[in-house]
Amino acid sequence: MPVYKTITVSPTTSVYIWKVTEPEIELAKDVELTEHCQNRMDGMKSEAHRRAFLSIRHLMAEAGYVDHDLYYDDFGKPHLKDGKYISITHSHNFTGIIISETDEVGIDIEMQRDKILRIAHKFTPIQEYKTLANTEALMRKLTIVWGAKESLYKIYAQRGLSFLRHINVIDFSFEDTRTVAEIMYQGKKSHYEVQFMEFEGFTCVYALKMMGG
């Protein structure tokens, strides 16, 4: 069963991405779920959702973890029992995790779709990106911005945080494959490194909270 991509972000941080092609029965082999996660999976009506859920357990195995190493806080944010940081994402047939010994991390995978052009005003001051040459470039850029904000939201994990008002992604070019972002919320400012990549019509964005930020 193939891991689609492994990225070494730093000596202490890695990203693992899975392309879900296997049937559920194959993915379920050798996966032992906690009662909490088994109940979650039992409640999933969609086979695609269950396959994605199981594939994430295979990604965790790549990093040396089993489901019992994982727990969720009241916000729904995942944590590892050994104190390392983890973030999880899935979109259609791609799933991904990021694990770090040293940094708070967030990850998001999104399918690139025109729909984002219609909802952009809800999460970013869209005029910042109007200079782009064509609709496809605008769609790609907005998908990166959305993924960045989603990744930061997963790190910050506080109710009331607004993508539009509280999270700012500094503009970037596609060639950069990285940018920085900040959250200004309740009088506190925090800073984040953001990296992104595109594959097969999908965008993966991951963020690390900067030390002292």
Automatic annotation (TrEMBL):
The keyword Glycoprotein does not apply. GO terms for molecular function: transferase activity. Keywords: Transferase. Transmembrane segments: none annotated. InterPro entries: 4-PPantetheinyl_Trfase_dom, 4-PPantetheinyl_Trfase_dom_sf. Residues 105-192 form the 4'-phosphopantetheinyl transferase domain. Gene3D superfamilies: 4'-phosphopantetheinyl transferase domain. This is 4'-phosphopantetheinyl transferase superfamily protein. It comes from [Muricauda] lutisoli.
